[in-house]
Amino acid sequence: MSKRTYEERIDYYNNKIKKYMDKDRRKRRRLRLSSSSDDFPENDYRSETLVLDRDQEAIIETMDPPPDLRDDILVVFPTNSARILGVFPTPSVSHQVVFRPLTQALAKRGHDLVILTTDPAFKPGETPANIREIDLHDESYRIWRTEVLNTVDGKTDDPITLIELAIKINAKLIEKQIETKEVQELIKSKAKFDLILVEACARPALIMSHVFKAPVIQVSSFMAVPPNYQVFGSPAHPILYPEWTRNKIYNLTVWEKLSGAYDDLRIHYIWRKNEHFENEMIKRQFGPEAPTVAELADNVDMLFLNVHPIWEGNRAVPPNVIHMGGLPQKPHKELPEDLKQLLDSSKHGVIYMSFGTNVIPSQLPPERIQVFCKVFSRLPYDVIWKWDQDELPGRPGNVRIYKWVPQSDVLRHPNVKLFITQGGLQSTDEAISAAVPLIAFPMLGDQWYNAEKYVHHGIGLKLELESITEEVLEDSVKAVIGDESYHTNLVRLRSLMLDQPQPPLSRAVWWAEYTIRHGGAKHLRSPAANISWAEFLMLDVLGVISAVVVVLLAKVVVVVKLVVKWKRSKVKQS
């Protein structure tokens, strides 16, 4: 088998499936042969996927092609159709786009899905027959924008303070979502689900696992939030595995290490301290006997993270934590004509600037906006600026503003020289895939962490919006565009990240169906999962050892005193 050519192996598996179909046509349901990546949209992956459903069993059979073709073919016999509930409460497009590839891939494999989302993927009337989207958009965004986004005005607010605010707002937000008519009807229907997918940063949403009594997978649109790691038993260390809330993670002084350790303890304390807001909400909605968020979290089966292990610092994780970094990226599409013409015709190249979906650029401090305008006016490059208004005050002639930009496709254009970003993880993934150097102005959440990674991997620079000057910005732009090492480092990092035995989406789908097939994944649970620090550090054992040492030392002291006393008495007698 190992000596067959790639083409011979394709023929072998095609013949194998044909024989199976001829032998028992009544049992087979579907045969799909596809050479398109549309079913499993991945970074640059193009796979040939053979899928055959059986009635009673699920078998995964993978060929052993040559190393350069190892991602090209996967033969999968999936499970029977299952009913899956997706609960994704965060009103942010950058969060929601991560969940769509997974839910849609599961739907294309024949599963039925009910999805609670703030941003439906389909227009009314265009939703596939086996997907039902419950739209929570209007009220969710009203609450979020009023109470969270208005606190972000371009200043680098303390990330931990913002997270504490988000925890409280999340409880209020999810309560309002639960009270909507459609969600109430779903809860009262007592529908049966085989699997529940819950957004990892929305702890109160885990109550759905109590309502519907089904296995749970938490899905994160970025890295894990601190309680996730504790629940799954992944080791914590303030220097080796710093939390993504930190502003600085490399080249630390002793004082910065102490400060970082304090910040990590503080973030864990804040999550624990604010549990009562979430517990109160749950008990208001589901009665005094409802479980706490800690109890609900302890019942989670698996954790999917939208991050590559390299980006997370190769953190040690148990087998029920799955990395699926780069999940939301889609195959390349043709650019709109105006953007294509601008990019194609640019003589010196293009700078692309966007601060993501959670920051309203027109609400940034006017003096900072003018710093960008003045610097761009002195540069030879064309600029594409994602801007939310019809007009940009002081806009130079080489700057074009757009309310919406197909970011991934723009970044892949060879004329794009630089990406000025807020440092979001999805934007980072897209820049790495396109090998476009970065300059980050972190403003929210994990963006400081990501910007630190830019510098560490040599793929970009980190700047602060509140202190940026024309001179610093201009020098930084020239340095990144003019130094070929940034592009070289990006190409190498991309190669390291994409060289995997299977595409991230295929991996996520497989583990989701694995959880369905086995009615959960508790057997993959680490023995360190959700144990206290006292247990993890064996303080009881250390206490016993310390007590024994103290007793022995006490005995030694007593013996020494007795010997000294005896010698003194002997001297006096002589």
From TrEMBL:
GO molecular function: UDP-glycosyltransferase activity
Protein name in the entry: UDP-glycosyltransferase-33AA2
InterPro entries in the cross-refs: UDP-glycosyltransferase, UDP_glucos_trans, UDP_glycos_trans_CS
Family stated for the protein in its record: Belongs to the UDP-glycosyltransferase family.
Gene3D superfamilies named among the record's database cross-references: Glycogen Phosphorylase B
Presence of keyword Membrane: yes
Species for this entry: Plutella xylostella (Diamondback moth)
Keywords of this entry: Glycosyltransferase, Membrane, Transferase, Transmembrane, Transmembrane helix
Superkingdom as given in the UniProt entry: Eukaryota
Spans traversing the lipid bilayer: 536-564
